[in-house]
Amino acid sequence: MSQLKVNSIVPVGGLPSGANGGIIQVVSTVKTDTASFTVSTGGEHDYTSFSVSITPSSNSNKVLLTGFVSCSLSGGEQDVKYFINRGGSAINAARGDADGSRSRVTAGNYSNDYVLTSIPINFLDSPATTSAVTYNLVFRHTSGVDRTFYINRMPSSNDNSKYSRGASVLTAMEVTV
Questions:
Q1: pLDDT digits (tens, 9 = 90+) for 130-166
Q2: What are the backbone dihedrals phi and psi of residue 39, each rounded to the nearest 5 degrees, phi first?
């Protein structure tokens, strides 16, 4: 397995005076195995088995989260949704505004028994700390009954080429400001 470890990524000529945005640290988690869990009606699942931890070197630096999660949901046509947690609490700046009974989420997509969907992850966080911070996803659905989430696989998973296995990636990059 190859690894790339760097202390800083800066243009060849250096950053212009007063410029921001150098990447000084990158940490990534890749999940290739499958998982499943049940989420009750109107409930959430704090999925801590797919997370990334980073320790910012300055409390003024930001953390850029990128990646995607491959997932599906049992029970036919459904919406799969997630929001981002930092240290066990939702990052409200990474969710839509409150509006009546609507779900405040970061992103979502459509799923059915025969679709492995990929949902993007992309958010620039301001953790304001030099302590380790851990990011993970919390999953929700809109169904009126309990549903099973599947990570990196489809609910229908017969052993033939019609049924996929996927991967999920969560990357945290410390960005200087």
A1: 999 999 999 998 888 899 999 999 988 788 888 889 9
A2: -120, 125
CB count, 10 Å around CB of 63?
22
Query: Which segments in the chain show pLDDT lower than 70?
Result: 1-21
Q: Is 97 exposed, middle or buried (0-12, 13-18, 19+ CB in 10 A)?
A: exposed
The rounded mean pLDDT for the chain is: 88
Domain membership of residue 67 as a residue range:
23-175
Domain-located, residue 11: no
142 contacts 79 by C-beta, under 8 angstroms: yes
Residue 5 in any domain: the answer is no
| Whole-number Å distance between alpha carbons of 71 and 84 | 16
Total number of domains constituting the chain: 1
Instruction: Decide if 32 is inside a domain.
Output: yes
pLDDT at residue 144, as a whole number: 83
Gap between the Cα atoms of 154 and 39, Å rounded: 16
% of the chain at pLDDT higher than 90: 62
In a domain, 121, yes or no: yes
HSE of 161 in the Cβ direction (CA atoms, 13 Å)? 0
CATH number at residue 104: 2.60.120.1340
How far apart CA 44 and CA 23 sit, in angstroms, is: 33
